[in-house]
Amino acid sequence: MAKPATIFFHKNKVKAFWESDEKVFLGRKSSVSEEKLTDSRGKTSIFETQKNVFETKDGELVLVGITRDITELRNAQSALESSNKSLFEKAHADSLTGLPNRRCLESYMSSVMNEYEQTKRPFAFF
Fold it and tell me: DSSP secondary structure string, the chain?
């Protein structure tokens, strides 16, 4: 037996879901969204929902939504971004002093030269 959505979600969240469904249905365009939802124990999960409108053989329009839990994916992406930032900082700083190293200077000079090639604005290094 189906239960009303307000049993699981706050009424404002349910209203937002219905408005999103209506927008997809009337516009006949796909929609992909992410939602952070917190359960009754305080655990927050991230869900991705893709919605599409299909037409049956009888010409009836049907809204189909597919939702998947992407919490682990987003957590892994966040950890990877953090590791990449840390590696970049370590690669561009002297390990003893923490000051920018030669690799950092070369990278900066390269980006300035590329900008000069595009804009032809004069520059100077000191």
Answer: ----GGGTS-HHHHHHHHHHHHHHHHHT--EEEEEEEE-TTS-EEEEEEEEEEEE-TTS-EEEEEEEEE-HHHHHHHHHHHHHHHHHHHHHTB-TTT--B-HHHHHHHHHHHHHHHHHH-------
**Structure-token pair, residue 76:** 């892994």
Give this prediction's pTM.
0.64
**38 vs 79: which has the higher pLDDT:** 79
pLDDT at 68: 96
pLDDT at 22 over 80: yes
58 and 94 in a common domain: no
Q: Is residue 14 part of a domain?
A: yes
Domain boundary pick from 69, 86, 107: 69
Among 4-13, 25-34, 108-117, whose mean pLDDT is lowest? 4-13
